[in-house]
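Exercise 7. Given the encoded structure of a 418-residue chain, write a plausible sequence.
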């Protein structure tokens, strides 16, 4: 049978798709709910083994690259540049079953179904399980996609550590990867990349339709704020003589959120971690350190927000007699996705009778990094209650199936040309 670019939606094995999502969710499942699959951990290795076995079962040529991304490939009859799909296998701490996992499992399902139904493609077609996106374990993120897009920093694997002081390079060696070869993960032969992902917000559920295509992905800045005051005895030091670093940090956190609220949607700012020293019940905190994640799709507005965050923190520090240090941990600019590949997705969605909503993604995605290596597009399916990065993350089974069929259809239209 040959595939043609008709308006017919490609069929998939729906039960296999849903069963595999459940199976993958067991890898790294936490006893009290939620999932944690940090990069190069035993849970991560077990998940990678599972998806590799699925690719092999489908008859794809599989390959683990130098940083641990796993690729499954159909060798196209005409060669040339590669059509690819996928997402990340790692999760946040206590995350859900779909963030990243959907794009990995659906990508394997779409490529396997195309192979089973239509045989060899004309273009080379690959699915990929990307090793890391979330920044959950190491003090970096997008490690897998940056390796593909030639965006790793010199010496990064030896410099970046996890909370226990283990370097990325040491963690790689522990899973039999050689950090000195990381540069060989670069792909210069990609034509197109499509990522299917859950929306992670409430727009599609609240306003419809059941599919979205992403035009822009917001830029993210991560800041680390250190506030220094004075440690004192919690019983003996009078309230009006204290320089409590935590209270300063708490006032800053409120002001930071307020700056985003005043700027209005889609500006966001989140204080996601907070540590105090000496962290003892009967000591006034002498130091507080917290992180800020702030995002806006418009680069000018994002810079404005970062300035406001800095100004508000300085004002509070000076009012309370505290010292302040703000460090930029990472700064990822907003990106625009490929209109051409997005149009292929839109036409595939129309084959399912859905005119997809054009959306901006507030969440970061491998796709944003891969714009440096390929013409990239993203397809969103609704998130129930808009919930994500939590154990409750879920999408209706029929939307998971719809998104995967539309993905498979778009891949057919790109990879099975006459
Ligand atoms: C990843 O999910 C991010 O948006 O930070
Ligand atoms: Mn994700
Ligand atoms: Mn995520």
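Solution.
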């Amino acid at each position: 049978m040959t595939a043609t670019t008709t308006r017919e939606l490609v069929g998939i094995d729906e039960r296999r798709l849903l069963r595999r999502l459940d199976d993958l969710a067991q890898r790294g499942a936490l006893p009290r709910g939620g999932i944690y699959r940090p990069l190069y951990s035993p849970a991560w290795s077990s998940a990678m083994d599972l998806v590799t076995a699925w690719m092999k079962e489908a008859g794809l040529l599989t390959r683990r690259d130098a940083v641990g991304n796993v690729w499954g490939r159909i060798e196209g009859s005409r060669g040339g540049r590669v059509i690819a799909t996928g997402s990340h296998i790692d999760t946040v701490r206590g995350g859900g079953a779909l963030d990243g996992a959907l794009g990995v499992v659906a990508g394997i399902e779409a490529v396997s179904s195309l192979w089973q139904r239509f045989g060899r493609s004309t273009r080379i077609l690959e699915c990929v399980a990307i090793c890391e996106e979330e920044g959950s374990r190491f003090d970096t993120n997008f490690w897998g996609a940056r390796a593909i897009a030639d965006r790793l920093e010199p010496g990064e694997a030896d410099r970046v550590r996890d909370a226990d002081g283990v370097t990325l390079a040491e963690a790689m060696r522990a899973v039999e990867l050689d950090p000195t070869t990381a540069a060989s993960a670069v792909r210069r032969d990609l034509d197109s990349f499509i990522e299917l992902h859950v929306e992670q917000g409430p727009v599609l559920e609240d306003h419809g339709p059941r599919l979205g295509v992403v035009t822009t992905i917001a830029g993210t800045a991560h800041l680390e704020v250190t506030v220094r005051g004075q440690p004192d005895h919690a019983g003996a030091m009078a309230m009006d003589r204290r320089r409590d670093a935590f209270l300063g940090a708490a006032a800053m956190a409120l002001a930071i959120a307020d700056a985003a609220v005043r700027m209005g949607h889609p500006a966001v700012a989140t204080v996601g971690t907070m540590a105090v020293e000496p962290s003892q019940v009967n000591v006034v905190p002498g130091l507080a350190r917290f992180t800020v994640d702030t995002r806006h799709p418009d680069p000018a507005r994002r810079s404005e927000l970062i300035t406001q965050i800095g100004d508000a923190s300085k004002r509070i520090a000076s009012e309370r007699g505290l010292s302040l240090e703000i460090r930029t941990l990472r700064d990822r600019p907003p990106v625009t996705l490929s209109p051409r590949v997005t149009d292929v997705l839109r036409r595939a969605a129309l084959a399912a009778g859905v005119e997809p909503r054009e959306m901006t993604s507030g969440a970061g995605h491998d796709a944003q990094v891969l714009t440096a290596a390929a013409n990239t597009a993203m397809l969103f399916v609704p998130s129930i209650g808009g919930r994500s990065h939590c154990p409750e993350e879920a999408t209706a089974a029929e939307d998971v199936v719809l998104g995967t069929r539309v993905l498979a259809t778009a891949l057919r239209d790109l990879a099975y040309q006459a």
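Remark. The CA atoms of residues 265 and 296 lie 9 Å apart. Students should compare their own answers with the one above.
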